[in-house]
């Protein structure tokens, strides 16, 4: 199952499955001793989606070490803990600096609008495909969860004219905004990634911020590693080839692109991020493929 221009999905199919996968990792990471993150909504959301392997993962019903030497799932959990904390800290820092508008691009099962301590008056927009937005919003409402900011959901494909839909939902482009693009870029075609940053730049007055991450070797090397990781997941009952979901081909490095378009950029490798949070970098296929990832923050000049 490879990608096509107007493909769509829910949280149990195609790219949507990856949102459930990372939420499962957040659920496991949240219950570890000395946890780096606390996402109490991840486990119930994953259960509600109902993909057997991820439900078992959040319920502790899989002996991951016995199935795959622990590498795939443990590395994913460690990486997600650090990545989640990086984006949490990004939004909290932006809030401390006075930013009161946030846009979470490709929000998936991210529960930040329900769990971060947003200052009063903050408006948070979540953008994702319609079925993803509807499922998460309905499930969290059924769980009795309430947003901790004014939440506005925006159902639109990020390959389409999403700024128009964002504006139609009340987005104020005169206000500094904190943007996140977490776990998104490789699921966009290279030209759509550039357009994404062009649109964000056009909607961002000085003082706006963005956080993202990307893999400098997002081409063949990552695809190979992902295929290997997918084989492990297949052994555990999940029929999903991750590398089929990425758009391959040359793409502009996010750091350079943002730096050339009016942003003051800072990039740190995944290994540096682990050190920053006092965690040991995991070993194994997945971690090798992700070790070059760069965590990027930028401020609009
Ligand atoms: C790996 S998940 C990451 C979800 C979330 N950011 C997180 O870290 O938990 C990828 C997300 O990107 C969304 N996505 C990918 N391509 C998209 C597109 N063209 N339009 C809207 N959403 C998209 C998917 O629906 C999915 O929720």
Describe the overall structure:
With 301 residues, the protein is of the alpha/beta class. It has one domain: Rossmann fold (3-Layer(aba) Sandwich), CATH 3.40.50.150. Strands 3-2-1-4-5-7-6 form a 7-stranded mixed beta sheet. Helix 1 runs antiparallel to helix 2, helix 1 packs parallel to helix 3 and helix 2 runs antiparallel to helix 3. The model has no long low-confidence stretch (mean pLDDT 91).
Topology of helices and strands:
Layout: H1 14-30, H2 42-49, H3 52-59, H4 64-68, H5 71-96, E1 101-105, H6 112-115, E2 123-128, H7 130-142, E3 150-155, H8 162-168, E4 178-181, H9 190-202, E5 209-214, H10 220-235, H11 242-245, H12 254-259, E6 263-269, H13 270-276, H14 285-290, E7 294-300
Parallel strand pairs: 1-2, 1-4, 2-3, 4-5
Antiparallel strand pairs: 5-7, 6-7
Helix pairs in contact: 1-2, 1-3, 1-5, 2-3
The structure holds S-adenosylmethionine.
Q: Which ligands does the model contain, each kind named once?
A: S-adenosylmethionine
CATH topology type: Rossmann fold
N- and C-termini, Cα separation: 42 Å
Radius of gyration, CA atoms, in whole angstroms: 18 Å
Strand order of the largest sheet: 3-2-1-4-5-7-6
**What is the C-level CATH assignment?**
Alpha Beta
Relative helix content? 40-55%
The CATH H-level homologous superfamily = Vaccinia Virus protein VP39
Determine the mean pLDDT. Answer: 91
Structural class, please?
alpha/beta
CATH architecture, by name, is 3-Layer(aba) Sandwich
Q: Strand fraction band?
A: 5-15%
Give the tally of β-strands: 7
Q: Which residues form runs of ≥5 with pLDDT under 50?
A: none
How many independent structural domains?
1
**Alpha plus pi helix count:** 14
Order of helices and strands: HHHHHEHEHEHEHEHHHEHHE
Shape: globular
Largest sheet: 7 strands, mixed
